[in-house]
Specification:
Layout: E1 12-16, H1 20-30, E2 35-39, H2 42-51, E3 57-61, H3 69-77, E4 87-91, H4 97-105, E5 110-113, H5 118-162, E6 168-173, E7 178-181, H6 183-189, H7 200-203, H8 220-227, E8 231-239, E9 245-256, E10 262-271, H9 272-299
Parallel strand pairs: 1-2, 1-3, 3-4, 4-5
Antiparallel strand pairs: 6-7, 6-10, 8-9, 9-10
Length: about 300
């Protein structure tokens, strides 16, 4: 199954300036490509950062009443969750070298003096904002790798416990992709000979032809992944490798990480036809034994 290509989200940019006209100008320049947040003072900027976790870049005016841009930047850099947010200073007044130097000293990554080329600012905003976006993407991929490793460990433990039972065990990740199965699953699904294009997801009806997880339906796996609900011995129809349908009993339960996030699910399947055949055979044997007991009783000497 091919994983859809991930794209970077729109960057969240905090613009800090006490003049509304300057904020409007920045919104006109950058608002098409980025999400802009606004603050009219240093105190308001700090308040925004305390409540908004997704800020990727800060555009900071220097000359403001109360906390100026340098003081605001210094305080922001002392906030644990904001230490790696790039800060670009923009000013129409403090353009001399001592002020530029101070901007870098308090944590600024760039310094623009008005008038400046708006296209240059736009390009640099794109570059600096991408640092955080790519870092977030790498952290997300690392988290997925760790979750996948944990799922495989859980799958191996479950497989060892359930290997001798006449049931199939599948381990799915949080996106519904099957990452581990037992041999019994292949036997249950193999009504005929499998083709080269067969996959468990398609056979179980959990994927469409484009390889995307089916959003409709409310089967055991979907409920386990979406709502964290466990299900037991539900009778469902599946499509086998050869295209035929089969009735199975399916049970599913969510798998949780240490922080209680759902990171996958375990699905246990059993061939319903075989189960009924076993029950019928058992019932037939019991009936014969009962009948034999009656015959023996009737033929016994009085």
């Amino acid at each position: 199954m091919v994983e859809p290509r991930r794209i970077l989200r729109r960057a969240n940019i905090l613009a800090v300036d006490d003049k509304r006209a300057n904020l409007v100008a920045l919104d006109a320049l950058l608002g098409t490509d980025h999400n802009l947040l606004f603050a009219k003072s240093g105190d308001e900027a700090i308040s925004v950062l305390e409540t908004s976790k997704g800020v990727d870049l800060i555009l900071m005016d220097v000359q403001m009443p109360g906390l100026d841009g340098f003081e605001t930047a210094a305080r922001i850099k002392k906030m644990k969750q904001c230490q790696d947010i790039p800060i670009i200073f923009i000013t129409a007044v403090y353009s001399d070298n001592p002020y530029v130097k101070r901007g870098y000293e308090v944590g600024g990554i760039d310094y623009f003096s008005k008038p400046f080329d708006p296209e240059i600012l736009k390009m640099k905003v794109e570059i600096y904002a991408s640092f955080r976006l790519k870092a977030d993407l790498l952290r997300e991929k690392e988290r997925h790798i760790q979750e996948s490793e944990e799922l495989l460990k859980v799958g191996r433990r479950l497989s060892a416990v359930l290997e001798r039972l006449p049931v199939g065990v599948l381990i799915a990740d949080v996106e519904g992709r099957i990452c581990q199965t037992t041999e019994e699953v292949s036997r249950i699904l193999r009504s005929g000979e499998p083709t080269a294009h067969d996959s468990y997801g398609e056979s179980l009806g959990w994927w469409n032809e484009g390889g995307q997880q089916l959003k409709s339906g409310d089967g055991p796996l979907v409920r386990a992944l979406r709502r964290g609900e466990a299900s037991h011995s539900e009778l469902i129809s599946i499509r086998c490798f050869d295209g035929t349908e089969k009735k199975i009993l399916a049970s599913a339960a969510p798998l949780h990480a240490l922080d209680r996030r759902i990171v996958g699910a375990v699905v246990v399947i059993q061939d319903f036809t075989e189960s009924r055949m076993i029950e019928a055979d058992l019932e037939q044997r019991v009936t014969k034994l009962v009948a034999l007991g009656v015959e023996l009783e009737e033929s016994a000497p009085r």
